[in-house]
Design goal:
182 residues; four-stranded antiparallel β-sheet; alpha+beta; single chain
Length: 182
Amino acid sequence: MAKNDHMKGFTLIELLIVIAILGIIAAISPNIRQTMNNQRLKSAATNLYSRMQKARSEAIRLNTNIIINFTPGPFASGGRVGTYTVFNDNGDGPLAGGIANNLIQDGTEATLNNVAMPQDVSLISAAFSGGTTAAGFNSRGLPANSRIGNIVMRNDIRWYRISLSIAGNLNMQISRDGVNYN
């Protein structure tokens, strides 16, 4: 039996390799978290943008108003702040108080989507003309009751703004400071 057969432990080279690997993992792990947070925000903004486009198409197809009612909240680093509901504002259930085209889900007007913000995403603002947090589309694909404005979502380092124009067009922009969008 050779003397080295009974020796246990790591060589200096093995120890240095392990330390180097741990250093690399420590260096990239904050970037992985940041990338995941940004991906969640981008996904939530893209989903909202898509749902708004679909609401426009449905309003035209069904010859009615499709409304998105937003419930924003204050920014929280962990997200899960804010919700929105997409519904058919057609006045269903007039005996139960349903009124068509009032931008309020009342009576038995059908809910098309009910969405809560995911982890690391805060829906911090929904501001439309007329001082409301609701917007949508009429049967011609134009903003219901001429309500135009913006929705803002953010995480710790990025903001997304979705704008609704008077022509019914949607525009999604990104910012790193919440002021300058492109």
